[in-house]
Amino acid sequence: MHKILILTEVLPPVYGGADIAGFRYAQYLFQSNKFNVTLIGKYNDSILDYIQIYPFIKYITLEEKKTTNWRFKRLFELYNWFHTLFRVNIWMYKNHNNVDVVHSFNSWSNLNLAFLKVAKFYGKRIITETCLIGADDPETLFKEKKKYIFTADYYRKNAYLKADYFISKSNYMTSIFLKYFDTLKVRQIPYFVDKSKFFQLNQDVKNELRIKLKVPTEKKIILFSGELNTRKAVDILVKAFKASSFVNYILVLAGPEGPDKSFVEKLKSEINQSDNIIATCKKVDNIHEWMQIADYFCLFSFKEGFPISVIEALSCGLPIIASDIPEIKNSQVIYGYNGFTAKVGSEIALINLFNKISSIQPNEYRILSDNALKSSEIYDIDTIKEEYMRLYA
């Protein structure tokens, strides 16, 4: 029986896309009863409740120091790295006999990278994944800096290179990886979709669900899911929606407020000026239901890795409206086939795209929706599991 250690930076309920993917994958392996699975991440105040439900979850408590003083920033980063390394060493010393493979679902947090370094010392097989271009891809991690040896980044890069395999999520990511690593060490494996939750409803059931969620049944819905922050360009999305020629449409923003309070307050002000925008402003546990009642899914981010929300929306038969960043344009959305893309960061381009969509006829929409479902077929868990199993072996 394989003994798999899955790493995510944070644990439920405080997690992002890559962390969600790691948790769902650990849950899948645990339920199969064929694997000894452990999921580990940083402690949060709610995790003890989750451990009662999901006994495969473990945690490490880290006391990270922070400062806004640039003079001490490098020193604090070094302290946080070595403190994390020390804590991981203790955990691995006690548990190394229960680990065959270490599978990291991101490559940028101190916790994940420290585990890679320590696990190599114990002779474990190591797999690490990139979750966001500009954060944990090799091009970003290997960026040269002055006095590099005196920074935490020097040790983080060294730890990253301990991996046996590097997982890319998209064609664009793979092209970056192949600049740095031998082809045999790079694998392109996308995230998977839980098809038991994310699937298309017929119109009658969709209307019943809309009533449950208190959304008008007679209007069409454009859905965004994710944190309300600048990287997701939610402000541009809201302004473009308000400036478009949409009639009988509403925009739903399903997700929590981001950390930038100034940005959130300005966004709320824009939202409050429209009767056709709904924002939850809190974490949504039933995002599959919101996708099932929607007509389109919109993600106009400046940066992404391989957004899980897009492939979940495709599985619900939703055509995609997205920014033309390479991760989406080259790997998920084919213009005019299963959705549309517009120039990243351009409010005018998004307005023009919204105006185009407002004139789409029902038969054209049905074709887009059918193609979205076809596009989602490759994200089946059994197919993706087999890819991972080959690496574990």
Structural write-up:
The protein has 393 residues and is of the alpha/beta class. It has 2 domains: 2-189, Glycogen Phosphorylase B (Rossmann fold); 203-379, Glycogen Phosphorylase B (Rossmann fold, 3-Layer(aba) Sandwich). Helix content is 43%, strand content 17%. The chain has 16 helices and 13 strands. The protein has helices at 17-32, 47-53, 70-95, 110-121, 138-141, 152-160, 171-177, 203-212, 234-243, 261-272, 287-293, 308-315, 326-329, 347-358, 362-375, 381-392, and strands spanning 2-10, 35-42, 57-60, 101-104, 125-129, 165-168, 186-188, 220-225, 249-256, 277-281, 296-299, 320-323, 339-342. The strands form 2 sheets. Strands 3-2-1-4-5-6-7 form a 7-stranded parallel beta sheet, with helices on both faces. β8, α9 and β9 (249-256) form a beta-alpha-beta unit. α9 packs parallel to α10. The longest helix has 26 residues, at 70-95. The radius of gyration is 22 Å and the shape is globular. It starts with a strand and ends with a helix. The model has no long low-confidence stretch (mean pLDDT 93).
